[in-house]
Structures are given as structure tokens and as C-alpha cells.
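ingest -> validate -> predict -> emit
validate: passed (alphabet ok, no gaps, 320 aa)
predict: started
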Amino acid sequence: MEFVIARNPDPASSLPFLVRLPMGSRPVVLKVKDTWPRTAKVFCHPATEWPDPEDFEIVERVAVTSCVRRGVAIDLVLDRARENRSQFVFTKARGRDVVFWQSARTRKQARPNVAVPTARASGRRLDIVVDTRERYAWKFSSQQATTSKRALSVGDYAVEVDGEIAAVVERKSIEDLVSTIVGGKLWTLLAAMAVISHAAVVVDDRYSSLFKLTRVRPASVAEQIAEAAVRYPTVPIVFAETRQLAQEWTYRFFGAAIEHRANDVVGTARVDALPIGGPVPAPEPTTAEVRAWAIAAGLQVSDRGRLRPEIREAHRAATE
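emit:
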């Protein structure tokens, strides 16, 4: 995959460059103000189309490590040492849909396309489902949420979107967590939770409490928790210190999951509306490649330095 920057062939446009994002089988193209967000966010706008390769000049092409849409943003990671991480954010400005290209240096809190949580998580009152087997369940009395009881296939608490589980949380005390690890149930629990888009195990105690255990080896427990983070990176084990903070973390986690679901719908629609990027001309062969071809073809070339123009012309004629 390549990230391509080209000059915009439209002389009337105030955005002098085009960028082509390799979004899997559907690359997209944007008009941009600059070639990288170095000192400020770069304003972008959807291009009408990707021009014919013969009609524009390529400014830069870089191999791509990752180009993934997450909610209302596209995260871009380039295969180079500097200026390699950036993000295209779909947001609103003065009531209009806009796109900004930003890096870690220029990033500021962008307004999302839907309501941002303030006092309420996700801008709404949450209805949290509590598993019927949960004893002494959290009531979320300090949060703007209601609870209802129902049997859950996995987790102790959950929120739904359009009748589907959007996020789950398994609540653990430090003793319960250790019992789950020693009894060998941790891995089956995490495997079941990993099927859900957003899941977490929340412990209402400090991580330091692990090293005060006396009936088990603290190092063994800590190692298995570390292994769990490696094997199941989508299901974090969060130490929230107290019961109150564990409820607050869970409430915000659920709000963020609902917000992400809404952003994901918006982001999908915005990306699908962008024009598809067309073909890109093949990169020019290097001097070493042309020299190797000339030697194999029996042509006289020097061992180093520039090649004569007629050698490059002969290579172009032979390979086109």
C-alpha cells in the first residue's frame, strides 16, 4: 500500500494538493491545503475524482504501515522514521461537514459529528443491564443511569444499541480475580468476552493489592494478568481502586462505547461518500535497476555515477 500526494491539476482550486488514502479495496481521494500537518491542522475537502495519472504530478509516495478508519477518523501510519503518524478527522464547523488532517503535534480536541459526553455519558441517560446472577449489584446511583436486570451470556453489566450488546463489563473484587486465575477460569472468561466489540474486566481495588497476597504467589498472579493483556488485548483488566471509582469507570466506558457506535455509523457514511482513488503510475526505476538491465542486455555502462540518457530511453522502450 502507498500513500500518494499529487499536485491538484485544477488551477481554480484553493487546495493545491491531492492525497490518495489506501482504504483497503476502496482507496479514497481528498483535496488538501498542504503536504503534511506540520504546524497546524490541514483543511481537506473531498475531491470530485482522481485524475488520470498523465494529468498530474506526483509530489510524494510513501509505503503505508496502516490506514484504518476508526469512528469518524482515519488513522494513517507511514513507513518512515519522521512525520509518520497522522489522522483525518470528519467533524463539523459552522454547521458544515469538514475534514481536518492532523498530527500528534497539531492535534486538538475536535468536535465529533455527534454529541460529546459532558455530565452525561454519550449525552444521554444510560440504561445499564445487570446480570441476574450478580450479587450486591452496582446501582450507579451517582451516575445518570438506570438499571434493569436480565440474564447475560457473558459479563455482569452491559449496554445495548438497537437490541444488540454494544459493551460488557465483568466486575471483580481482588479475591474474585485471584480465584478466577487460580481456578483456570480466566482464559475462558476472556475468550467469551473477546467476542463482544467492547469488553473489560473491572477490579474494584488497586494493582498494588496483588503484591500483598499471602495464600498465592503474587508474581504468578501478576504474570498471568500480563499474559492476559497480551493474549486478549481487546479485553483490558482495569484496576479502579474503589467500588465507587469502578462504577464511574464502567459508566464512562459504556458511554464511550455507545458514542463510538454512533460515530462508526457516521464515519462509514462519510467515507463511502468520498470518491474512489484511481490508478497511480508505477514508480520510476532506480539507477541500479536500469544499470543491471543494461549489463544483462550487453550495453556499455559505467560501474557508478549517472547513466547516459540513451540508456534510460532504451530501458523505457524495452519495458513499456
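The chain has three domains: 2-111, 121-260, 287-319.
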